[in-house]
């Protein structure tokens, strides 16, 4: 709880599969870090529907994570809304995270590293993966195993910080 909020926060969520064959996504973990990468929120979230695919190899989520210590969707939604209100929200394909949380955020206060033109050039105009960006821009390897939403949020913030002056022109 000692982390300072500040003007900029980065978010990343992990999803699990719900519904038939686990093709639909449900929020299972949400992580938010501040400008310096300190964790402001990192909570497991009980999906509102029965999980049919934990996607552990990607999400890092296991059944034990969504048990007792997990918060409800409504609690997660309220806590995130509270943290991001009036702040610049940085994310990679951040609309997916907002959609999973069923939250809106003013476009003026969104910075999406997957849509930033100079970053897209690194992927020949396509949408670059976070892994690719971190490799090319920060010269660091991430996501070798399952994803950590805290790690992903931190690297998203680092990407933003690296180009912030240029981006905000």
UniProtKB/TrEMBL annotation:
SUPFAM superfamilies named among the record's database cross-references: Ribonuclease H-like
Compartments, as annotated in UniProt: Nucleus
Keyword entries, A-Z: Exonuclease, Hydrolase, Nuclease, Nucleus, rRNA processing
Domain Exonuclease: 7-169
One GO process term, biological-process aspect: ribosomal large subunit assembly
Gene3D superfamilies: Ribonuclease H-like superfamily/Ribonuclease H
GO molecular function ontology, one term from the record: nucleic acid binding
Matching InterPro entries: REX4_DEDDh_dom, REXO1/3/4-like, Ribonucl_H, RNaseH-like_sf, RNaseH_sf
One CC-aspect GO term: nucleus
Coarse class of the protein's main subcellular location: nucleus
Family: Belongs to the REXO4 family.
Function comment: Exoribonuclease involved in ribosome biosynthesis. Involved in the processing of ITS1, the internal transcribed spacer localized between the 18S and 5.8S rRNAs.
Protein name listed in UniProt: RNA exonuclease 4
Origin species: Phycomyces blakesleeanus (strain ATCC 8743b / DSM 1359 / FGSC 10004 / NBRC 33097 / NRRL 1555)
Taxonomic placement: Eukaryota, Fungi, Fungi incertae sedis, Mucoromycota, Mucoromycotina
